[in-house]
Write a sequence for this structure.
């Protein structure tokens, strides 16, 4: 799989935290709380993105989207997946209008 600078490096660190000490690593601490805690964090961060999107502060929105992307990467790692796979899916969709894709669905 093609590596994407920054994204691949952070994903490597997240993966490595599965065996790390929860006292010295935020990611290890989050993993130690179990799968539901990781998913709950994604939900919380998504809500914070919605709230930041309402207050006309670009820096705040960037900060919260970074939190959401980061915690989504933790959720992917938990499922044994990589962010490069998500980027490949976006690449696969590139150039296909969402309206065309929706109209082509069977149900
Ligand atoms: N990108 C991030 C990153 N973004 C956000 N966060 C943390 O995510 C947490 C979310 O903040 P919140 O205020 O929403 O929640 P909180 O109250 O602090 O935490 P909870 O107890 O509610 O879970 C904060 O502790 C942030 O510091 C991150 N922690 C780590 N990383 C990356 O992950 C790497 C590994 O981190 P460690 O495992 O801590 O070494 C780091 O080197 C970074 O590259």
């Amino acid at each position: 799989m093609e590596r994407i600078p920054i994204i691949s490096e952070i994903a490597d660190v997240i993966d490595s935290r599965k065996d790390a000490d929860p006292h010295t690593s935020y990611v290890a601490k989050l993993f130690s709380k179990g799968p539901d805690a990781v998913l709950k964090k994604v939900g919380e961060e998504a809500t914070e993105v919605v709230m930041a999107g309402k207050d006309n502060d670009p820096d705040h929105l960037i900060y919260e989207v970074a939190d959401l992307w980061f915690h989504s990467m933790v959720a992917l790692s938990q499922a044994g997946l990589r962010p490069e796979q998500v980027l490949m899916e976006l690449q696969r969709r590139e150039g296909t209008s969402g309206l065309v894709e929706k109209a082509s669905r069977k149900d």
